[in-house]
Amino acid sequence: METLYQQIAAELAGQIAAGIHGPGDRLPGLRGHALQRGVSVATVVAAYRKLEDEGYIEARSRSGFYVRTRKAIQTIEAGASSVTAPPCPVTGQSMTMALIKAASNPGIVQLGAAVPDPAYLPTNAVARALARVARTERSRAAAYMMPPGAPELRQQIARRMSQTGGCVSADDIVITTGCQEALSLALRACTRPHDVVAVESPAFYGLLHVLESLELKVLEIPAHPRTGIALDALAFALDRWPVKACVVVPNFSNPLGYCMSDASKRALVELLTQRGVTLIEDDVYGDLGFANRRPSTCKGLMPQADILYCSSFSKTLSPGLRIGWVAAGEQRRERIEYLKYVTSIASPSVPQLATAQLLENGRYDRYLREVRGRYASAVARMSDAVMKYFPEGTRISQPAGGFVLWVELPHHVDGFDLARRALRQGVSIAPGTLFSVSGKFGNFVRLSCARVWDARLEKALLALARLL
Fold it and tell me: Which of 303, 312, 389, 431 sits CB 3.0–4.6 Å from 166 for a disulfide?
């Protein structure tokens, strides 16, 4: 558990990363800041000293603390390709399985899989909730929690979703085993094998493999690193091909990390509604924005539209709980419930009940307030390291949330070959070709920043730099 000064430092780092405090800005004075937060001056001094040690701020004699001008970041301003390729099937990608296996190997520095280090997760709170459920809910814990899932969990999820706009009923929610299953069920509910599904490009490779397993064709729509899926390219594609569904991550997409504006979200939904295309909204990173305000969702902005909303607590509470969900209207919900039953009968009971308790007692919201700044700090620190160690010509994304960094390497670099060589040296990274079905992003890699910064991690980055 973080100390109070570490929490304050992490929150300020997040504000700096989000641009709330820009280079050269003076931070609030020590006494004023202490009074505002209700803490001691010594606590604020410790927080400022920590930020100073990490290179975020600098002390100026008789003047105070100021945000440092950090090393210039070369940002990615456009996708690798603005051309929409024809729909095509997904092919097997052996590197994906290598990354998955590496994620379970403690001897490998994990920069490839987008799985937070346990140090970023509320592991103690989760353990207490699991123990409490096992002790007090023995009968329910031992039984199947048949679809749609635990009523108290669905009620808590509906309450949280309603805070982002619209009105979501607990009856609209089906509990799944993680977001991956949620996406699979949503796709099965609105498509058939060989149908065309539009996805933003680059796209999360886990989604591409779900599409492969369902024998669906992928239509890649270019996405801008800061504004999201290109609506003009999507409109062109919808005119040309018989698209049945469109999968988008509007908030802090993986791997680009952008957050679509409300206007763009509405325009996306209106475009798909006009063409009779179902939107599958993946909001798994929605709670991890660097700003204090939680962004809106497409489902919240336009609740009456044909939207299947998918999310999970795998990136926040614990990936091991495997708690995800789909929110849909009555007609689709019944189909999804049936598909959930024939796929896995039910999701585990104990994690559902424990998650409901964590949401009900407010611990989850307290955790989110703490961790957002930590993730912003982690992304900023990784960004600085990449620009410091990697060769000239390297460019990076500027995520508004989440914890992954999309890195464009010099054109001559083969990201797939780099990943293979790095894995042999005990470092896991995700090559850019995994995020496309048409061979794009050959000189890109994705790095997970949700790691404890220590000598081992810095050594891994230096090893990557040497390979480059």
Answer: 303
Cα angle: 373, vertex 225, 289; to 5 degrees: 20
Pairing of strands 307-312, 278-282: parallel
Question: Which two tokens mark 66?
Answer: 């100021």
C-alpha 458 chain-centroid distance: 23
78 lies in a domain?
no
CB 176, CB 153: distance < 8 Å? no
pTM above 0.70, yes or no: yes
Looking at the fold, whether 10 and 45 belong to one and the same domain comes out as yes
- Parent domain of 58: 4-67
The verdict on residue 413 lying in a domain is: yes
Greatest pairwise CA separation for the chain in angstroms: 69
**Res 435 pLDDT > 90:** yes
382 and 462 co-located in one domain: yes
Question: For residue range 219-260, what is the model confidence (pLDDT) as tens digits?
Answer: 999 999 989 999 999 999 999 999 999 999 999 999 999 999
pLDDT tens digit string along 17-40? 766 787 778 888 888 888 888 889
